[in-house]
Write a structure and sequence with these properties.
mainly alpha; single chain; about 0% strand; two-stranded antiparallel ribbon
């Protein structure tokens, strides 16, 4: 994690008055003194841009964008000098949507601003398009019906985005310098060309471990300025890289020498500060639409729409939460599972045949294989089995038994 307190202390200790005013603007949003703003705007050419050298007469696209970056940190992007410079940039756009330096600067221009160089031309197109995009975030609208991204410079920025997208390779690379990548990604993102912007960001993510701290700070500050989102994956990776490369005194190394370490540190602070709330759009307030005098009645719903709908149609029935045991590690007792009867037990069985009930004889001596017939006599009294030769004969009613 970046140590912002140490970085702020480094700027306070080694920065000049302008750099400390930039820090105060980034932290608290306090307006910079008018004298510092006038000093930052000094040397502006009559046409609106700033020359690349002191007391120069020819304005440079690269130098103008650099001055706009300083004025943005000081909160002076809405001043007349900055607006004059933005109008000059919009007027310098070529028919194909790009920008190029004046041919008279070919003798002493750096390699990234050489007139006629295709790589420098792509870099200047991304740089100028970025600052016109930033100015369009808070600028006045071009008209009451113009809702394009970029405000008053919407058409200029849209043409620049098309020119940048046409130069991209299928793998997302670009034939220009490294800073042109994140500047073009920011312009394409604000123009809602998210696919082209994501292709560039994927290439930049692979190169972040090899970038210098100054390049990483510039990349992160650029994406943060166009409001790509705090959780954007490339911005998170850049902040992690800044945390790894921060020095013990709180600053970061610059590629242009130690005299620019404070400038690099200010870019890193801008990249790591939380996003500011959305600014109120500048311009006349919108007039609400007046309702007409005739109020039309609302259509009556049909009978089908008045029928009660099943509550389970759209909203599922809430399930009852499972009871939990008060003891955390005590397993929840489970109910014994009922087993279904098998097929054999489900078969219908025939009831057993009922046998006739025989009354058992009470006495042990009467359990033989004989039967009683006739009245009881001495021979047939209990305890005396009947002789096998005795047989019962039929007798007429009223006849005396034979002895």
């Amino acid at each position: 994690m970046v140590d912002l307190d140490a970085a702020i202390g480094f700027v306070v200790a080694y920065g000049d008055a302008v750099e400390r005013a930039r820090l105060s603007r980034l932290r608290t949003g306090a307006p910079a003194p008018a004298g510092l703003l006038d000093a930052a705007e000094a040397g502006q050419a009559p046409g609106g841009g700033w020359p690349a050298v002191l007391d120069g007469e020819v304005a440079s696209v690269d130098a103008t964008c650099y001055r706009l970056a300083e004025l943005d940190d000081l909160g002076g992007l809405s001043r007349p000098a900055a607006r004059h410079a933005l109008d000059w940039l919009a007027a310098r756009q070529l028919p194909d949507g790009g920008w190029d330096e004046d041919p008279s600067l070919a003798g002493f221009a750096p390699e990234w601003a050489t007139p006629g160089d295709p790589e420098a031309r792509l870099y200047l197109t991304a740089y100028a398009g970025f600052w016109l995009t930033v100015a369009g975030l808070d600028a006045r609208a071009a008209g009451p019906l113009d809702h394009r991204v970029g405000g008053a410079y919407a058409g200029v920025v849209q043409a620049a985005a098309q020119a940048l997208a046409a130069q991209l390779a299928p793998d997302g690379s670009w034939p220009s310098f490294l800073p042109a990548g994140w500047l073009a990604a920011a312009v394409l993102h604000r123009q809602q060309m998210y696919y082209e912007s994501a292709r560039i960001q994927a290439v930049l993510a692979d190169r972040i471990p090899e970038m210098s701290p100054a390049d990483v700070a510039w990349l992160a500050a650029t994406l943060h300025r166009v409001e790509v989102g705090e959780e954007q994956w490339l911005l998170v990776a850049a902040r992690r890289r800044l945390a790894e490369t921060q020095r013990s005194d709180g600053g970061w190394d610059s590629d242009d020498g130690h005299q620019f370490d404070v400038h690099t540190t200010l870019r890193a602070i801008r990249a790591c500060l939380p996003a500011e709330p959305a600014a109120t759009p500048v311009g006349p307030p919108r007039v609400p639409l007046q309702p007409s005098a005739r109020v039309l009645p609302l259509p009556r719903p049909c009978r089908r729409s008045l029928r009660p709908r099943c509550p389970r149609r759209r909203c599922p029935r809430p399930r009852r939460p499972r009871p939990r045991c008060p003891r955390r590690r005590c397993p929840r007792p489970r109910r014994p599972r009922r087993r279904r009867p098998g097929r054999r037990s489900l078969r219908r069985r025939c009831p057993p045949r009922r046998r006739p009930h025989r009354r058992s004889l009470r006495h042990r001596s009467l359990r033989g294989s004989f039967r009683l017939a006739g009245p009881r006599t001495g021979a047939t009294s209990p305890g005396r089995p009947r002789s096998s030769t005795c047989r019962s004969r039929k007798r007429a009613p009223g006849a005396m038994p034979q002895v």
